[in-house]
Amino acid sequence: MASLVLRRVLGALPVLLIVSLITFGMMRLIPGDPSSVIGGMSATPAQLEQIRRDLGLDEPIAVQLVRWYGGLLQGNLGRSILMGQDVMSVTLQRLPVTIALSAYALVITLVLGLASGIFAALRQNTLIDQLAMMLAMLGISIPNFFLGLLMIIFFAVQLGWLPTGGYVGFTDDPIGWLRTSTMPAISLALLQVGLLARITRSTMLEVLRQDYIRTARAKGLPERLVVMKHALSNALIPITTVVGIIVSLLVSGSVVTETLFSIPGMGQLLTQAVLNRDYPMVQGGLFLVTAFLVLINIGVDVCYSLLDPRVRHE
Predict the structure, then answer these.
(1) Which residues pair with 79 in a beta bridge?
(2) pLDDT of residue 107
(3) Mean pLDDT of the chain
(4) FRET pair for 136, CA 20 to 30 Å: which of 8, 49, 112, 159?
(5) Which residues 6+ apart lie within 8 Å of 91 measured at CB?
(6) Residue 302 pLDDT > 80, yes or no?
(7) 156-191 pLDDT, tens digit each
(8) Is the dihedral of CA 236, 240, 241, 246 positive or negative?
């Protein structure tokens, strides 16, 4: 197991370096730079040049890249140009909000996606199966920002049941956290619920046709035991891989959701940083988010090896 984790960690290092390089290059390709944001519309060319010199943006791109990697090797992600704070500390303050929202959405995805997928597989080609798959396709087709707007209009504006936006920490007020996180989590999870339901249904149908399932039924085992112990336990192997992808999609999808619902997480932070050309914040924030996703994928690989011991010997 330790060798598996070590191989995955070593394989992830080039991914982190490539992501940081792509982020660095893309930010330099965007028109404008932090000097125009800091100086404002009234700044003279001389003032803008002085701001660029103070920020080190007048140096060649190669020099800026070497400086960025040098700081990265020392664990220094730089300081936010506009916020004036250390990128690491700001990111670590915002990241738990995104993790909490994504975890809430993941719970919704697992409960609804697995339940509807299993139920549809057990009622194959019936009205229930067709209805479940139709709703799953509807969930896949609706963009999360459009669903979020509809939920705000209906549940917040029309009915007044939930707030239109904002965020309350779970440790501060669990009820307040549920009120402020439910609509964003549902809008974030609906797309993934449809995806997981369809994958679960197809995987369960394949497993239910296996000989050992027929043998278990022939022995007179209760249907619930056949489905939950024999069928689902084997279907979880490919489903686990899909869940790892879903976690990545939930974290990346939080950019739109957090902006829409005014949630102070990583998505909102990175959106503001890109709009304001805050190079260190974008580069450092995306690097830490990528590192978090890499850890999630390593965890999925570990779970996969526990479910299928053959993976440990590959």
Answers:
(1) 86
(2) 92
(3) 81
(4) 159
(5) 77, 266, 269, 284, 285, 288
(6) no
(7) 888 888 888 888 888 888 888 888 888 889 888 888
(8) positive
pLDDT (0 to 100) of residue 312: 53
Q: Tell which residue, 191, 196, 198, 197, has the closest CA to residue 140.
A: 191
Q: What is the mean pLDDT of residues 268-281?
A: 82
- pLDDT reported for residue 1: 62
What is the model's pTM? 0.80
Question: What are 311's two structure tokens?
Answer: 């993976």
The reported pLDDT for the residue numbered 197 is 86
- What are residue 112's phi and psi, to 5 degrees? -75, -40
Say if residues 269 and 91 touch (Cβ distance below 8 Å): yes
Identity of the amino acid at 76: N
Q: Can you point out the beta strands (E) in the chain?
A: none
Task: Please name which of 240, 148, 157, 159 lies closest in space to residue 185, comparing C-alpha atoms.
Answer: 148
Report the distance separating Cα 160 and Cα 291, nearest Å: 39
Is there a contact between 284 and 270 (Cβ–Cβ < 8 Å)?
Answer: no
The number of residues making up the chain comes to 314
pLDDT per position as a tens digit, 99-136: 888 899 999 999 988 888 888 888 887 887 888 888 87
**Alpha-carbon separation of residue 185 from 34, 119, 162, 189, 307 (angstroms):** 33, 23, 13, 6, 28
Please tell me the predicted confidence (pLDDT) of residue 165: 81
**Domains of the chain, each with CATH number or no CATH:** 2-73 (no CATH), 96-264 (1.10.3720.10)
Cα–Cα distances (Å) from 237 to 49, 207, 242, 256, 277, in that order, read 57, 11, 9, 31, 43
* CB-CB contact of 142 with 191 (8 Å): yes
Angle at 185 between CA 232 and CA 262, to 5 degrees: 160
Question: In Å, how far are 189, 223, 234, 290 from 228, measured between CA atoms?
Answer: 24, 9, 10, 35
CB 8 within 8 A of CB 306: no
